[in-house]
Amino acid sequence: MNVTVGIGNGSKNQQMMQMQQIEQTVQSIVNGGGLGTIIKPTNVWNLAMEKAKVAGRKDGNKFFTKPESDDTDEGPSIEEQKLQAEMQFKQKEVEQKDMELQINAKRLEMEEMELQFKIQQHEDNNEFKIAELQLETTQNRAVKVGSD
Predict the structure, then answer these.
(1) 35 in a structural domain
(2) How far lies 68's CA from each of 32, 40, 65, in Å?
(3) For residue 75, is it within any domain?
(4) Nearest-angstrom CA–CA distance, 69 and 28
(5) What is the mean pLDDT of each run of 10 residues along the chain (148 residues)?
(6) What is the pTM of this model?
(7) Pick from 104, 148, 100: nearest CA to 124
(8) Tell me, what DSSP letter sits at residue 39?
(9) Virtual CA dihedral for 74, 80, 84, 90, nearest 10 degrees?
């Protein structure tokens, strides 16, 4: 059996100010990453219920829902973070390989254009030589067509 004796809890205004100070402390701990360690969801609910009681409300459950558990989502585990980092690394590797393939495709395209140009040059030179030979045959003398 526990006996609790009131030792001058102060006025409602003083009690509400104390609750606000506690709430500020809780907020600073939660903002500092303390949710799930020294502050649990149930602690926050208890604070809300106490504030409702100090405010003169008999049933704080009208305003706040008790958490089902004190489990908090602490984000991905170390193993999940490693897997995410590895997946990102693999994705970057795939992107790099893709870029290399695109560069190689452009290089091959340029080489093909160069070869087409050289083929065209040879065809043009052959046409000039054929024209020279035809003129030489018809004029019975040496003829030079084009510039070399």
Answers:
(1) yes
(2) 24, 12, 9
(3) no
(4) 22
(5) 58 88 90 84 90 87 85 71 93 97 97 97 92 88 69
(6) 0.43
(7) 148
(8) B
(9) 170
